[in-house]
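Query protein
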Amino acid sequence: MIVIAIDGPSGAGKSSTSREIARRAGWNYLDTGALYRAVTWLALSLESDDPAKIIQGLKTSPIRFVANPQDPKVFCGDTDVTEEIRTARVTDAVSALSAMPAIRQELLVLQRKIIDKADRGIVVEGRDIGTVVAPDAPMKVYLTADLDARAARRDAELSDLSGGVAVVGQSLSERDHTDSTRAVSPLATASDAVIIDSTLLNLEETVERIWELLKERNLLGLPIVAILGRPNVGKSTLINRFLGRREAIVEDTPGVTRDRVQYECEWNDRRFIIMDTGGWESKPDGISVQVSAGAELAMQEADVLCFVVDAQVGALDEDDILVQELRKAKKPTLLVANKVDGDSDESDAHALWNIGLGEPHFVSALHGRGSGDLLDLIVNELPEVGGAQAQDGYRRIALIGRPNVGKSSLLNALAGESLSIVDDVAGTTRDPVDSLIDFGGSIWRFVDTAGLKKRANQASGTDYYATLRTQAALERCECAVVVLDASLPISEQDLRVITMVEEAGKALVLVMNKWDLVDEDRRDQLDKEIDRHLDQVEWAQRVNVAAKTGWHRDRLAPAIRTALDSWERRVPTAKLNSFLGALIGATPPPVRGGKQPKIYYATQAGIAPPKFVIFSSGWIEPSYRRFIERRLREEFGFPGTPVMVAIRVKERDKENG
């Protein structure tokens, strides 16, 4: 179950944003501010500010929150107080009451109960969600905006009742001070929260920004595709064809697959879960009762259904019963005609139109005929949000470097225990070791990889497979920590590892390990090597550590956070084009072939890493692109991440010549 924690000051747009994300994802929604307002309403009804009396009142009139993003409601006992809690009387009293420790503790229990009851996911918003209520939430956002923007928004909400923007601004400022300075659970930014400034963003843009992060971190869940059908129609063979490897057990004997088995599959950059089910029978007996029941459960859990029929046998009477069940499920359903090995089989298989599930899609799972087209159709039916949780929310960090630079020692130093085998013999680690490590105020998923000795195509045996596994770990990670031995000269292998990370588009932190072995002369030499060899990644965060003693290991977490923050950063379009206009005005692009290309505008095409596209009337010199990238970094930062700048040439309009 996914928990999205959204904190921030009053008027930043938390409620509207949270509701819209929950609605779009089909998740629950919790406005914790409404709970505090409901308690305030109860306290005013009781005419008491005594925490003990208020808590007693909560026992007789418990607060209930209907966590529906389309129509959230708050009840106090049997009374619907959804509208009442928004009155000025409640607003004026809520800050003082929400600062009471006993009240906060009571509501903390209630908030966690509501979160635990959520089905697939919940978006929770308030002031202390990421820091107190759900500190382990896989996604934390601190949504803010400047005071003027927040005051204008709140004034528009309150209409004629506000007293004007200036009055609202003063009220918000006082509320900010109260929330930030209270002794218990003050408004604060969680160390691992993404800060989003919505001053220049409308609601749609703010939601899109968070949605983009959810997709990039694989927190929207993977869609599930269930493969259903009678025994021995070739379901497992089809799954092996989709996966490109022999995972599902296949035999000529019917009924080999009995349990629901899930496999992760990827096609056209979309990841999803393929669920293999046992053969469904209309009149099961013995063990097939449970097998058929499992297939029916798969129908409920899946997002897309594939009904496989043996085209050589054709549709049987018992298929009609399964077709009725598939229709009841009311989910996208594809009719798959398997064992269609040639054109003659295809003409016979057209008879499957009679099943009533629409067009049959012809495949030969054994020979691969039509499987790619079928996967295209499946991917087109996949929903944006899936039912299988794909990520636990921990940031994925890979420790990479050549052999014997101290990657495993660093992992052990961070963990405070021996997780990886350490030996002076180079190449001790051969398989990537995946570990959850709590350090620097967060839990991280670290992968200790094998040292990269040679290029994969030049390596042999164990080294070859270790290199491939390290490259796969790099592809899966979000930030690569490249470990260098500071006591030795920077080698060509070190530079090749850094280039691998840059080309993979990952956030980068350089760790200069074995600093305890570096004397004054070596430091001078190292500075020269860094200037000479690492100029192409001068943007990378650099940390000096001694893994064996643990010296300066605490500096790694802030460096990783900074790099990941840059890696996921999005620049508002208005800011980007304002910057670009000033840049071109001061330094126009160089003339080429007697013509000066005109730059129209720029847009940020994506994050992780940041990708910018600049539209121009003609070719832009690579040197000017590098100049734009350098100035982008100066203006907006981006420490610790590669930045991609692409030029797209647009034909001039006829009117403009």
